[in-house]
């Protein structure tokens, strides 16, 4: 990749959500904002190689997108005078007073996560408009068809426009009721960054993990007493702390077991542990922890161990038991089984994993986990078949490199 | 922006009946705050007639256009700046008239 291409890719990662958010504020229309942002990036692809990369990328992109939006509204003016007048009118209205926090992206997230939208639509729309993910990437994250996901996003945008869902961070008294959908969305954005689902991106998309953490920190300022906000932030920090140790120099995924723990980020781990301790104190005082707090605690146990052999697996399994009681999803059960393998052996874990086959047959970690357990039990033939399934289902380049090597090591 | 608020009753599980004084007080508040455009209760669906004059001649049929346990018992039309305001009022309205309500924007 040459310098200009790299600058454009970087700018897309860092500025997409901001450009969409600012244009949404100005024009009050998600479609106009999204299309103008896309046109601005297309113009950058055309112009930057010849003109050079502008010094202030954000300003260039926002100005260009603004012009594109106005051009588009003028074109529509010729088709539909009334509609266009309304649009231009709203463009001239000064921005409404800011909510509790002056952050355009957070406003965009709360708009996308409005309770009048179905939960799946909230998540999909946020990933699209804030995370800048493509429809195929979102469809993969949800294990659904692209066409269905496209329709869901279109319908959600149409409802925001027709029912006039406002573009703002809700008032303080509305916040607690709206935050759980926002947390779900931030976690999905983070996960897409941590294990990208597309073969056409870096296997780890730091810009997405960084953005999810930045937004979670902002939420924590808004809701300092919310245990799940603290829990999710801790979970992200403790996961992010291991990011650089997770992909080898040759671009292969390195599992938690094989990671060089000296490469973990001690500052992020200290921050994450501090938050987990805070939540443990609250739990001791009788506040029942939610799923993010439990997941954060599991990651705190992992990051406490200086060597994988020192990991307190019984503590991890106990935490998973607690988690299963509030969320008995097959993915949680699968992750619990991975810990059970360390505590009770791969045969016990395999029995638990295989009970999930119907529910997780399209989910590559299911096949990768099963492959690993079969390998440890010496059932090489079956393990090879399971590795093949996992390899076929993952699009992450680092992960397939890892799985292929493990498969080829089988005797 | 105007919103239609449909009051939904259920023949199998009707709401309590005498909500009129509370609804009147709520309507006065809607008027004072500039949200009230129109409101009205509807007679039972037994009193409905459906007319279809798309063919050669008009056909009249007795009863509502859709047969279900749930039916439209009344409507409000409100003026509100955005959906959040309409939803806040509708949340109150549902409590006050002891029925489900649907909020739908006019085009």
TrEMBL record, chain A:
The residue ranges of the DUF6596 domain are 178-278
Which GO BP terms apply? DNA-templated transcription initiation
- Tell me the keywords, alphabetical order: Sigma factor, Transcription, Transcription regulation
Residue ranges occupied by any RNA polymerase sigma-70 region domain in the UniProt entry: 18-78
**Gene Ontology molecular function: any one:** DNA binding
InterPro entries from the UniProt entry = DUF6596, RNA_pol_sigma70_r2, RNA_pol_sigma70_r4_t2, RNA_pol_sigma_r2, RNA_pol_sigma_r3/r4-like, TPR-like_helical_dom_sf, WH-like_DNA-bd_sf
UniProt KW Heme keyword: no
Its domain of life reads Bacteria
Query: Domain RNA polymerase sigma factor 70 region 4 type, which positions?
Result: 109-160
Q: Which Pfam families match?
A: DUF6596, Sigma70_r2, Sigma70_r4_2
Q: Which family would the database say this protein is a member of? A: Belongs to the sigma-70 factor family. ECF subfamily.
Q: What is this protein called?
A: Putative RNA polymerase, sigma-24 subunit, ECF subfamily
TrEMBL record, chain B:
Q: Which domain of life is it from?
A: Bacteria
Q: Which residues form the YCII-related domain?
A: 1-94
* Record Pfam families: YCII (PF03795)
Recorded hits in InterPro entries, A to Z, give: Dimeric_a/b-barrel (IPR011008), YCII (IPR005545)
Stored PANTHER family: BLL7171 PROTEIN, BLL7171 PROTEIN-RELATED
Q: Which family does it belong to?
A: Belongs to the YciI family.
- This one is known as YCII-related protein
The source organism is Kribbella flavida (strain DSM 17836 / JCM 10339 / NBRC 14399)
């Amino acid at each position: 990749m040459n310098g200009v291409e790299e600058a454009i890719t970087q700018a897309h990662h860092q500025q997409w959500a901001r450009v969409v958010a600012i244009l949404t504020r100005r024009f009050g229309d998600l479609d106009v904002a999204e299309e103008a942002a896309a046109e601005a990036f297309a113009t950058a692809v055309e112009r930057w190689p010849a003109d050079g990369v502008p010094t202030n990328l954000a300003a260039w992109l926002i100005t260009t997108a603004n012009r594109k939006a106005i051009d588009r509204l003028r074109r529509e003016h010729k088709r539909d005078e009334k509609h266009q007048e309304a649009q231009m009118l709203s463009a001239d209205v000064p921005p409404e007073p800011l909510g509790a926090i002056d952050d355009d992206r957070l406003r965009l997230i709360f708009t996308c996560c409005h309770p009048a939208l179905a939960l799946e639509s909230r998540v999909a729309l946020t990933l699209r408009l804030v995370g800048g993910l493509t429809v195929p990437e979102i469809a993969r994250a949800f294990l659904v068809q692209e066409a269905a996901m496209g329709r869901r996003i279109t319908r959600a945008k149409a409802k925001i426009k027709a029912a006039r869902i406002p573009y703002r961070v809700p008032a303080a008294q509305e916040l607690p009721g709206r935050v759980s959908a926002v947390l779900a969305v931030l976690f999905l954005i983070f996960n897409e960054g941590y294990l990208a689902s597309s073969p056409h991106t870096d296997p780890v998309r730091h810009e997405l993990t960084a953005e999810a953490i930045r937004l979670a920190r902002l939420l924590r300022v808004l809701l300092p007493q919310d245990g799940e906000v603290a829990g999710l932030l801790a979970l992200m920090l403790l996961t992010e702390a291991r990011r650089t140790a997770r992909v080898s120099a040759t671009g292969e995924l390195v599992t938690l077991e094989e990671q060089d723990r000296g490469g973990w980020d001690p500052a992020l781990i200290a921050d994450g542990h501090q938050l987990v301790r805070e939540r443990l104190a609250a739990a001791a005082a009788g506040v029942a922890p939610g799923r993010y707090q439990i997941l954060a605690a599991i990651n705190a146990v992992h990051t406490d161990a200086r060597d994988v052999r020192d990991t307190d697996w019984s503590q991890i399994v106990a935490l998973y038991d607690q988690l299963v009681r509030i969320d008995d999803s097959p993915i949680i059960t699968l992750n619990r089984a991975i810990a059970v393998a360390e505590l009770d052996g791969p045969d016990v874990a395999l029995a638990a994993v295989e009970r999930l086959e119907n529910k997780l047959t399209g989910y590559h970690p299911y096949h990768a986990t099963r492959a690993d357990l079969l390998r440890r039990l010496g059932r090489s033939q079956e393990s090879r078949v399971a590795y093949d399934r996992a390899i076929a289902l993952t699009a992450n380049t680092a992960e397939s490199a890892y799985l292929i090597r493990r498969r080829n090591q089988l005797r | 922006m105007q919103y239609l608020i449909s009051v939904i009753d259920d023949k199998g599980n009707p709401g309590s009946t005498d909500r009129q004084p509370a609804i009147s007080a709520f309507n006065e508040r809607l008027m004072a705050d500039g949200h009230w455009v129109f409101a009205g209760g509807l007679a039972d669906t037994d009193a409905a007639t459906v007319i279809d004059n798309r063919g050669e001649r008009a056909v009249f049929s007795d009863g509502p256009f859709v047969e279900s346990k749930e039916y439209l018992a009344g409507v409000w039309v409100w003026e509100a700046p955005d959906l959040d305001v309409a939803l806040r009022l509708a949340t109150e309205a549902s409590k006050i008239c002891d029925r489900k309500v649907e909020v739908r924007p006019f085009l």
